[in-house]
Amino acid sequence: MTATVLPMTLVDRTEELGEELDRLRSEVIAMRGADDARYIRTVIAVQRGLEAGGRLALAVSLMPPAWCAGTAMLTVAKILENMELGHNVLHGQWDWMGDPAIHSTTWEWDFASPADAWKRTHNHLHHTYTNVVGRDRDLGYTILRMSPEQPWRPVHLLQPLYAALLAPVFEWGIALYDLEADSVVAGRKSVRSFLGEIANLGRKAVRQSAKDYVLFPLLAGPSALPCLLGNLTANGLRNIWAHTVIFCGHFPSDVRTFTEDDIDGESRGQWYLRQIQGSANFGGGFLLHVLSGNLGHQIEHHLFPDLPSNRYDEIAPRVRRLCGKYGVPYVTGPLWRQYLSMWGRVVRHALP
Fold this sequence. Notes:
The chain is mainly alpha-helical. The chain has one domain. Helix 1 runs antiparallel to helix 13 and helix 9 packs across helix 14. One of its GO terms (molecular function) is oxidoreductase activity, acting on paired donors, with oxidation of a pair of donors resulting in the reduction of molecular oxygen to two molecules of water.
């Protein structure tokens, strides 16, 4: 489904909605302080503790209980590092603290894609042109057809298969996607720039692979093989979880897509409206939200991508009330329902 041109009366109301959301944003910025800093530092401490515990257990993982415990701890540590830390730190959510160790310009995450490449495609392109066909490359990641406005090709018949195969290797798919090879073909990026980015990715890929698949297995000595398998399992599970969270926040059936004409002359209020209509939430408790990087509040994240993630749960009821007040659909539901809806969309748009 695509957005339609709004009548003038609704445009006026959209600007009122935008003003109320601006006030909400200002409130949260004014409230940021010690509690928020304590939250993120606690998450970092827990993540590092889990990673250290997981690495130590895998070092003696010839014993099956140690392998299970080590793999579980390392999986959770990698999920926390990617979702609640890496993703949100790189959005600049904690830059206000002035701590160079938790800053968007210095953080390099435990993920195949170099931070700078990801920030360019995600923070700028995706969050500026959310779900705009032809502008938001995240709308299907250039390989999936997720809107009827995207041209259909015979290869899309296979997209349910390659969407599923993408999940366990998601970090590598994103790393290749962030190279923007299609921009080189279209003439929007120089070959020299592209080759430089390939070199940066190569260096990052070597470091990531050497750390998980060479260094730590060698340090494990007799437990080298089970340690290697534990690292492979942790990375695969982390990738599947990231794929699930991200796809459920962007591709359920009720999430709208837009054309370039829809954003011509777009105002601040209309940008806010597009973020709400182009995102979906899923419900859950505190632990689920932390493990998903608080992206179960995808609507709030798209409205305010640089606000501290721990604030999304607090402001979500207010955003939902504002949507009700202005008659804007607020797409939310249990994770399992959003997951099934997302796969329904993948299958539906595989067909011409």
